[in-house]
Amino acid sequence: MRAWVIRATGSLDRIELTDLPPAAATPGPGDVRVGIRAAALNHLDLHVVQGLPLEYRFPHILGADGAGVVEAVGRDVAALRPGDRVMLNPGIADYSCEYCRAGEHSLCLNYRLLGEHVPGTLTESVVVPAQNVAVIPTLVPPLGWAEAAAFSLVTLTAWRMLVTRAQVRAGETVLIWGIGGGVALAALRIAKLRGAKVIVTSSSDAKLQAAKRLGADVTLNHTTQKISQEVRALTNKRGADVVVDSVGEATWDESLRALARGGRVVSCGATTGPKVGIDLRRLFWYQWSILGSTMGNDAEYREIVRRLGTGELRPLVDRVYPFGEARAAFERLARGEQLGKIVIQVAE
């Protein structure tokens, strides 16, 4: 079985294509084996290559997102059958701890992500729990493998951030940093579905023009404009009700300066660094809410799949690379050139 792996952490030259023993021919009772047709990259994959505080088991197969065809099902699986076209929810819970029993699977005490804690999707087949598999909805035009692979992680992340955690309401102003990445683009679409006014930022004027076509109300270049000043000017000095910040250290202070009284900052990442500061007096005086968010629960995943089926949450694919050129795909992601999701075609 061919797979893109790392045998040690470090730079992108650690990524290699190798042959590994095949996935289990007979899945466990509640599991499904999926033949991968396409896998999509996330910033998480870069962090895994560079090194995270994990107990890696090398060689480690990369990739969190994937879509493909069901090859085999365990004896207790009734809702899926061989031949089904499916996509994967990368967040694997144990479905038994107190948080899982309460329906909060992304808070599971044993929560794991494909490609991070367990072998990932940049390979020919994977075995996952049946709860993590969803049949690809029928759309017109049909959803291709690349789009299906690009959907799950970023859309689930953005849905939980905006709908469950920040509870964005119609008429509110939402500021989204770094448009172009998958989470930011999904957040733009979801915020507009909720009836919000959306301000987005980028260092690329081309990405900002594209975001305008995708529905952004206001676009700001954060290399030439002071974002907090612009947001306050646009809102009659009030500020944004919600700030979506997955950037971290580089944007944190500006996120708070742009925030309205009673506003909410919601974060799902720290691509520029994890250490930020805050003046607690401003926190309590302005009654801000600072919200963390990771992936989502099973009900949220089923809802975004349903919304995908209505055409509301169709993902944007930046570029598709052949399986043998996966390292080039990682390099494009590392340079931040993408507008949408970078996808690797694993098989026809």
Descriptive tags:
18 strands, 2 domains, 10 helices, single chain, Quinone Oxidoreductase, Chain A, domain 1, alpha/beta, seven-stranded mixed β-sheet, globular, 348 residues, six-stranded parallel β-sheet
Rg (C-alpha, Å): 20 Å
**Can you give the mean pLDDT?**
96
- How many beta-strand elements? 18
Note the total helix count: 10
- What ranges have pLDDT less than 50 throughout 5 or more consecutive residues? none
For this structure, the CATH topology of the largest domain is Quinone Oxidoreductase, Chain A, domain 1
CATH architecture name of the largest domain = Alpha-Beta Complex
> How many domains, as an integer?
2
Helicity level: 25-40%
CATH superfamily of the largest domain: Medium-chain alcohol dehydrogenases, catalytic domain
* Structural class by SSE content: alpha/beta
Separation of termini? 15 Å
SSE arrangement, N to C: EEEHEEEEHEEEHEHEHEHEHEHEHEHE
Strand content: 25-35%
Shape: globular
Q: What profile does the largest beta sheet have?
A: 7 strands, mixed
- Indicate the CATH class of the largest domain: Alpha Beta
Give a topology summary.
Elements: E1 2-6, E2 16-19, E3 31-40, H1 43-50, E4 60-61, E5 65-73, E6 85-88, E7 91-92, H2 98-101, E8 112-113, E9 125-129, E10 133-135, H3 145-165, E11 173-176, H4 182-193, E12 197-202, H5 205-213, E13 218-221, H6 227-234, E14 240-244, H7 252-257, E15 259-267, H8 280-285, E16 289-292, H9 298-309, E17 317-322, H10 326-335, E18 341-345
Parallel strand pairs: 11-12, 11-14, 12-13, 14-15, 15-16, 17-18
Antiparallel strand pairs: 1-2, 1-4, 3-5, 3-9, 3-18, 5-6, 6-10, 7-8
